[in-house]
Write a structure and sequence with these properties.
5 strands, 42% helix, alpha/beta, 6 helices
């Protein structure tokens, strides 16, 4: 249908973006005309990366996904963000049953609040073990997460977190 734009939101903290996120956003971009990657954050809580840094890393990671853009929102309900953006769906990746148990009540609550639908994509098994928090812990103690995060994120993590020996 000409003139109709389908838009979804991929929400998260993205502190920082991982290859698992990139996989889900890229696949959402094949299903919708536009994907808005929404960095939702608490203005009173400091992350590992500032919101501007998270947006910059997302922009670099999603360079090859022309119909995805990243926007940050402080202290907002996801359903209000979706309404403001004119998005009809939330897209999330599921790494397994634990993710599903965590995500299902949120999907039902969001549906209850405004009727917005949540679409779950099965996570790429290559990234089943990948989360922002786990990669940060591994890097902090000197482990190698190359291949699990974009190269720019790898460099940023090393600078921010890697501890010297001893
Ligand atoms: O990357 P994360 O930390 O798993 O993302 C969680 C996030 C930001 C998607 C979730 O906490 C969220 O939707 N927060 C916005 C506030 C909100 O709408 N809460 C009610 C959810 S039913």
């Amino acid at each position: 249908m000409a003139g109709v734009t389908s838009r979804c939101v991929c929400p998260g903290s993205y502190d920082p973006v991982t290859n698992g996120h990139v996989d889900v956003v890229s696949r959402a971009a094949a299903l919708f005309d536009e994907v808005v990657v929404a960095v939702l954050y608490n203005a009173g809580k400091e992350g590992t990366f500032t919101v501007d840094e998270r947006l910059r890393l997302l922009g670099e990671a999603l360079e090859d996904v022309p119909n995805a853009r990243s926007v940050a929102f402080a202290d907002r309900l996801l359903v209000d963000v979706c309404r403001e953006l004119g998005a009809t769906a939330i897209v999330k990746g599921l790494r397994g049953g634990t993710d599903f148990a965590y995500e299902l009540p949120m999907a039902l609550m969001n549906k209850h609040l405004t009727g917005v639908e949540t679409v779950f994509l099965p996570g790429n098994p290559s990234y089943e073990h990948v989360s922002s928090s786990l990669v940060k812990e591994v890097v902090t103690y000197g482990g190698d997460v190359s291949g699990l995060v974009p190269d720019t994120v790898l460099a940023a993590l090393g600078e921010r977190l890697r501890r010297g020996p001893g």
